[in-house]
C-alpha cells in the first residue's frame, strides 16, 4: 500500500551543485531556484524509496574529493559541473550493472519548476497548523488535511512536500537504518513481496500493521508542534469532592508539573478513583495553554471516560481517538486516545497521562511505550494499581484507600464440602453452606465470591 517512489536529481547552481532525491523533483527545483540553483537534471524514472536512497549514496561518494579538484583546477563553472555529472553518470551506470540492478539512467534537463499556488504562504501556515505534532504517511497527512477542511483541494501533496523542503516538516523511511520500525519501534520485521519483483523482498513491521503497513519503502512525515498560546481560562466542573487521600495525591501531581522530573507514578489501589485525581493536573496544564494526552490501553475505557471528561471540562476542546472512532485527526486541547492512536503523534503534548500502565497490552508491548514517549514533549504521569518493580524507581505518589475511605477489604477463604454429582440435585445445598451464606450476606453484609471446581 504505502510504496513511495522517488527520482534522483542533480541541481546546478551558480556557486554550488547538489544531489537529491524527491517524490516531486520539479517542486524541489522551484524551491531551490530561490537559493541560487538554476537547472535540474533528473536522472531516473520514479524508483522505490530505498533504491533512490541507495543511488543517492552512490552518487555522493567521492563528492568531497571532486570538489577540491574542481575548485583547484577548473574553477566553479556551469560547464565544469556538467562535465563532472557526465563522468559520474558513467560510473554510476557501471555500478548499477555490477550490482545487477536493471535501471537505466536517463538524464533530462529542466529549467522551470512546478508552479505553486499564489497564496502559498497561507496554505503552508494552514497545513502546518493542522498537521503539527503528528507523524504520518503521506496519504494519512493528506487525509488529515481533507478531514479538517483544508482550503486547497488539489494541492495537498504539493503543500505537504513543500513543508519538508522548507524544513517545517521532516521525512524518513518507514524502516530505519538500524532495522527498526520508525513508527512503533518494532524490531521484528517480516519479508513481503512489494515493488522489488522476483527474488527480492521488501520488509514491513507486523507489530503496527493494523494501522496500515509501515514498510522499507514507506515515507513517514513528522510535523513539529507550533508553539501554543499562553494562559487560558479553564472551567472544571466536578460534582463530587475528593477524599483527603485523593486531595493529597492531586496536589502532589500538580506540584510535579513544576518540578524538574519528567516522569512520575501514581500508584492507587483498585477503586481509589485515580482518574479523578489527575483532573487537577490536567486543568493546570490546560490553563498554561498546553495540550494534554490521556492514553488508555483499552478502547472501551476511552469510550466510557470521554463523556465524563466532557462534563468535567465543558469549555475545553476534546477529542476521543480509538480504532473505529470516526474522527482521527481532530484538533483538541485534551485528547483521550488508545495507546495505538498515540503512535500517530509526534512531540505534541507537554503532559501525557498513561492510564493502566499495567493493563494488557501495555506491559508486554514496547510499541506503546515507544509511541507514548514520542507523543510527549514534556511530562509523563503513569497511573497504575499494580506497578512493576522497575516502575517504582520513579518518583511515586500513593493512594492507599478507596474513595469511600475504607481500605481495600482482605478476602477470607472458606472451604466447604459439597455433595458430589447427582446427590446435590436430590438434597440441595448442605445446611453448613446455607448458614455460611446467610451469616456473610445478611449479618456481616459481605460480598461472597463462590468458586466451584466444576459446573
Ligand atoms: Zn511498526
Ligand atoms: Zn516495499
Description:
With 455 residues, this protein is of the alpha/beta class. The chain has 4 domains: 5-110, no CATH class; 120-223, no CATH class; 244-399, P-loop containing nucleotide triphosphate hydrolases (Rossmann fold, 3-Layer(aba) Sandwich), CATH 3.40.50; 411-455, no CATH class. Helix content is 34%, strand content 18%. The chain contains 13 helices and 17 strands. The chain has helices at residues 25-33, 49-60, 63-74, 78-98, 120-131, 138-147, 156-165, 244-256, 274-287, 299-312, 366-375, 422-427, 431-443, and strands at 5-13, 17-22, 37-42, 47-48, 108-110, 134-137, 170-173, 190-192, 202-204, 219-223, 263-268, 292-296, 318-321, 334-338, 349-354, 376-384, 396-399. The protein has a 7-stranded parallel sheet. Strands 1, 2, 3, 4 and 5 form a 5-stranded antiparallel sheet that branches. α11 links the parallel β15 and β16 (376-384). The longest helix is centred in the N-terminal third of the chain and has 21 residues, at 78-98. The chain is elongated. The chain starts with a strand and ends in a 12-residue tail after the last helix. The relative contact order is 0.09. Bound molecules: zinc ion (ZN) (2 copies). The site of one zinc ion (ZN) has 7 residues, from loops.
Summarize the structure.
By secondary structure, the chain is of the alpha/beta class. It folds into 4 domains: 5-110, no CATH class; 120-223, no CATH class; 244-399, P-loop containing nucleotide triphosphate hydrolases (Rossmann fold, 3-Layer(aba) Sandwich); 411-455, no CATH class.
Amino acid at each position: 500500500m504505502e510504496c513511495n517512489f522517488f527520482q534522483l536529481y542533480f541541481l546546478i547552481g551558480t556557486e554550488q551543485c547538489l544531489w537529491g532525491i524527491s517524490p516531486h523533483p520539479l517542486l524541489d527545483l522551484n524551491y531551490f531556484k530561490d537559493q541560487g540553483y538554476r537547472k535540474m537534471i533528473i536522472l531516473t524514472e520514479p524508483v522505490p524509496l530505498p533504491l533512490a536512497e541507495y543511488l543517492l549514496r552512490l552518487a555522493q561518494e567521492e563528492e568531497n574529493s571532486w570538489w577540491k579538484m574542481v575548485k583547484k583546477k577548473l574553477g566553479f563553472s556551469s560547464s565544469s559541473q556538467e562535465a563532472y555529472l557526465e563522468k559520474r553518470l558513467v560510473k554510476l551506470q557501471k555500478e548499477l550493472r555490477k550490482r545487477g540492478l536493471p535501471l537505466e539512467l536517463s538524464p533530462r534537463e529542466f529549467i522551470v519548476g512546478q508552479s505553486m499556488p499564489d497564496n502559498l504562504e497561507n496554505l503552508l501556515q494552514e497545513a502546518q497548523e493542522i498537521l503539527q505534532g503528528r507523524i504520518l504517511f503521506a496519504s494519512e497527512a493528506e487525509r488529515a488535511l481533507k478531514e479538517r477542511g483544508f482550503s486547497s483541494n488539489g494541492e495537498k501533496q504539493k503543500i505537504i512536500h513543500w513543508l519538508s523542503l522548507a524544513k517545517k516538516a521532516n521525512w524518513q523511511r518507514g524502516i530505519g537504518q538500524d532495522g527498526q520500525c520508525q513508527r512503533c519501534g518494532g524490531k521484528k520485521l517480516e519479508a513481503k513481496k512489494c515493488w522489488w519483483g522476483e527474488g527480492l523482498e521488501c520488509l514491513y513491521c507486523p507489530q503496527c500493521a493494523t494501522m496500515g503497513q509501515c514498510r522499507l519503502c514507506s515515507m513517514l512525515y513528522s510535523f513539529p508542534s507550533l508553539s501554543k498560546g499562553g494562559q487560558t481560562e479553564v472551567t472544571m466542573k466536578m460534582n463530587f469532592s475528593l477524599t483527603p487521600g485523593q486531595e493529597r495525591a492531586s496536589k502532589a501531581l500538580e506540584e510535579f508539573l513544576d518540578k524538574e522530573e519528567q516522569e512520575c507514578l501514581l500508584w492507587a489501589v483498585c477503586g481509589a478513583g485515580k482518574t479523578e485525581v489527575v483532573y487537577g493536573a490536567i486543568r493546570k496544564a490546560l490553563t498554561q495553554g498546553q495540550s494534554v494526552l490521556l492514553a488508555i490501553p483499552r478502547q472501551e475505557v476511552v469510550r466510557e471516560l470521554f463523556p465524563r471528561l466532557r462534563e468535567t471540562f465543558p469549555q475545553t476542546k476534546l477529542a476521543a481517538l480509538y480504532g473505529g472512532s470516526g474522527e482521527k485527526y481532530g484538533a483538541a486541547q485534551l485528547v483521550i486516545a488508545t495507546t495505538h492512536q498515540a503512535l500517530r503523534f509526534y512531540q505534541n503534548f507537554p503532559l501525557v497521562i498513561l492510564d493502566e500502565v499495567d493493563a494488557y497490552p501495555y506491559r508486554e508491548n514496547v510499541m506503546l511505550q515507544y509511541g507514548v514517549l514520542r507523543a510527549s514533549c514534556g511530562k509523563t504521569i503513569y497511573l497504575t494499581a499494580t506497578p512493576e518493580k522497575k516502575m517504582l524507581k520513579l518518583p511515586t505518589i500513593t493512594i492507599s484507600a478507596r474513595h469511600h475511605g475504607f481500605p481495600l477489604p482482605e478476602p477470607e477463604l472458606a472451604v466447604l464440602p459439597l455433595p458430589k454429582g447427582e446427590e446435590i440435585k436430590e438434597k440441595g445445598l448442605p445446611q453448613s453452606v446455607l448458614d455460611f451464606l446467610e451469616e456473610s450476606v445478611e449479618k456481616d453484609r459481605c460480598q461472597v465470591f463462590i468458586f466451584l471446581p466444576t459446573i
